[in-house]
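[step 3/7] fold_predict: job queued, chain A
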Amino acid sequence: MGALIDIESVTLASPRPNGLAGAHIDGPRPGERVEAHAIEVRGWALGGERPAVAVELWCEGRLARRVPLTLARQDLVKVFPDIPWAGAAGFRTTVAGLGRDPAMEIELRAVLGDQRRVPLARIVGRRRWREGPDADAPLVSVVIPCYGQAHYLGEAIESVLAQTYPHLEIVVVDDGSPDNTSEVAGAYPGVRVVRQENGGLAAARNTGLRSSSGAYLVFLDSDDRLLPEALEIGLQAFARHPEAALVWGGRALIGPGGERLAGASAPALRGSPYRALLRECVIWVPAAVMYRRALFEELGGFDPTVSASADYDLYLRATRDFPAHQHGELVAEYRRHGANMTLRPEVILRSELEVLRRQRRHVRRDPDGRRALREGLRRARAKHAPGVSEQLAERLLEGRWADARQLAALLARHHPSGLPAAGARLAAELAERRRAAGSSRSRA
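[step 4/7] structure written:
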């Protein structure tokens, strides 16, 4: 797996903690390097007057694991022949050493028969990322999914070929595109083209992830572009922040023809990236992010069930468990045109609310996180629901009743005040049509 833990120290609270005849941590040991997703902790804790019943493992102030003291330990029978329960005082379990803080600390407590907790030991480590064989000049993979955007794809590819950092690969995923995507990509020597049946943006990104081999990854939408120093800036940010699992910057806006528009931005982030992202998706374009490949070994890929907001879902999952860094440099250009996904508010509203609701169980014990989540849900509704209301009015005017019913159900569930807004829009449009019709009859 990608993340490792260097065990720095393992310290017993006392050779003979109060209420115990003895205790010891057999592993991990100082100096060991273990997989972060499953740190094996093993040892024994022997009750004195009566058996101890369990060992609790606490991480970041929270109970991570409780394991019963039932593992056979015949070696203890020889050392403690007068204690009848000595032969079953061992434990073995695994705990994940993942967290936003790269410093890791596991506190072990023995649970006595009367449910008192006794400090047992403390394990201290530091998370690091597994380095590949090309650590001095790592390969960066740029994955470009494409569906119906072949007319922009050449610009996306050329923006990668123009990078100041040369050690890169380009993987274009033709997601069953109805145009000449494969032919456009195939015209560039060295560009790898992978064609698949249409599965959506998230599935195409996952295909690119599997088909690439770089230690670092950037996902560039086929209608966007990278600025020339984007990859170099991302790698420099990782060098300054080796604990980070992902780094990101800002984006500039371009029009359909590639012309620069007003609105370049890299909004400053304060506080926890996870809580900031709960409040709002402050990463405004996927290409602004560079990831460690090792992160995907820990989290898996993009979730196709929320394809329209799969990037947002990944940002939240990543920053919830790992450090992230915003470097603030402009690295990408986002193209505004008539076919942007953001022009489908009903799709974005549904998927963004689902992504945010998935975080509820993770902020249950975090008051600041709960407040951030509530704000994010309100913001998502306020941002996308007006567009759904407009679409509902349009579908009613067009007589597209099935679509209108779906949009009305979406508003009723997530933003009921959008229903009267749609009715007002519909009434205003019908009144305007009546006025126009009356004016035409008068001129006749």
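[step 5/7] annotate
DSSP finds twelve helices and 18 strands in the chain.
The mean pLDDT is 89.
exit 0
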